[in-house]
Amino acid sequence: MTIGGSIFLIAVGAILRFATNVHVAHVSLDTVGLILMIAGAAGLILGLIQQRMWARRTAGAVPVDRVAPVEERAPVEEREIPPERRY
């Protein structure tokens, strides 16, 4: 669940819990709203934890501009290319 989806569930749950006076047979909209708010809060917390884990995982990656310059790399053996293979 995304962070936006979690906030949407919290908002819908709050509307059902606090802003409606509708009574449906065999269904308590207050309870449904509370369940949606709890599910949205759990999804929001899990989404933030997941985002933090991904940020930590990519923080240790070496950017392309930090690759060792050519002078610091190990030398490569130069070989003579036969004349028939030259283009």
Share of helical residues: 40-55%
Q: Which runs of at least 5 residues are low in confidence (pLDDT < 50)?
A: none
Q: Give the terminus-to-terminus CA distance.
A: 56 Å
Total E-strand runs:
0
Shape: rod-shaped
Rg of Cα set: 29 Å
Class per helix and strand makeup: mainly alpha
* Share in β-strands: under 5%
What sequence of helices (H) and strands (E) makes up the elements?
HH
Mean pLDDT: 82
Number of discrete helical segments: 2
* Most strands sheet: none
Overall description:
The protein is mostly helical and 87 residues long. It has a domain at 3-56. It contains 2 helices and no strands. It starts with a helix and ends in a 28-residue tail after the last helix.
Features of the shown structure:
single chain; 87 residues; mainly alpha; 0% strand; rod-shaped
SSE map:
Elements: H1 3-18, H2 29-59
Helix pairs in contact: 1-2
Q: What is this entry, summarized?
A:
With 87 residues, the chain is an all-alpha fold. Helix content is 54%, strand content 0%.
